[in-house]
């Protein structure tokens, strides 16, 4: 059966896989693949390692922030295996271990930040978790591409408190803006009154302008009394 049995000694390895060959229990140097890989069926054993990027949903983690607020965080982990040899011989289950280290790192990072920092700088928290998990899994041949936070859930009572606080801040800001507007208007009126005090004709012109605007807005006809001062030059004649 020699011409036929020779084909049993070959194994096909896909482009995204690498084969780790063990000969009598000892690992052979370098990963094999892609393509056809030679091995001896009775002496060698092999294990395929997938090099593609994996996406894992980190289960909801209950954590306590630095200011003693209990929250729940959901996240997504993106990682891939760069060194298939280390991922096979350094750890028993590289995928499960990567998930566990990501969960514990997420809880530790949340505990070192206040609630305000978490809500404001979510991107910074994601970067810090990515760096920490990547450093921990580097010896396993795992590359952490990114960790993204999906959602931060707050207790219902805390959500109501934050909403009330935000509403109070908006009301206070609106009152401040209104007061600043009234201050600016009063200063403008003071300057206008100073100008009118220097010239009495300007006060009459302003009066006529107000009457004109009222007539245009309400479609009215306003009868303005004829000033008697205009007839004084004709009294002597």
Task: Describe this protein's structure.
This protein has 237 residues and is α+β, with helices and mostly antiparallel strands. It is built from 7 helices and 8 strands; from the N terminus they run αβββββββααααβαα. Strands 3-2-5 form a 3-stranded antiparallel beta sheet. The N and C termini lie far apart (147 Å).
Largest sheet: 3 strands, antiparallel
Radius of gyration: 40 Å
In spatial order, strands of the major sheet run: 3-2-5
Mean pLDDT: 84
Instruction: List SSEs in N-to-C order.
Output: HEEEEEEEHHHHEHH
- pLDDT < 50 runs, ≥5 residues: none
Individual helix count: 7
What's the shape?
rod-shaped
State the share of residues found in helices, binned by percent.
40-55%
Return the structural class. Answer: alpha+beta
What's the quaternary structure here? Answer: single chain
Work out the number of β strands.
8
Keywords: Membrane
InterPro entries: Band-7_stomatin-like, Band_7, Band_7/SPFH_dom_sf, Band_7/stomatin-like_CS, Stomatin_HflK_fam
Protein name: Band 7 domain-containing protein
Subcellular location: Membrane
